[in-house]
Write a structure and sequence with these properties.
Layout (H helix, E strand, L loop, with lengths): L1 H42 L1
Length: 44
């Protein structure tokens, strides 16, 4: 039982860290998309 609880806590920590990383990636992608949009608008 104890081992299971510990692994659950570890898994939660891992998912939290993973979520933070994906959020950073998403914001990076969004910023890149915005740059692309503004670049294409400038060309018009």
């Amino acid at each position: 039982m104890c081992n299971q609880q510990n692994s659950d806590k570890d898994n939660k920590k891992r998912t939290l860290i993973g979520n933070k990383k994906t959020k950073k990636d998403i914001t990076k992608i969004q910023k890149l998309e915005e740059k692309l949009e503004s670049a294409t608008k400038d060309n018009d």
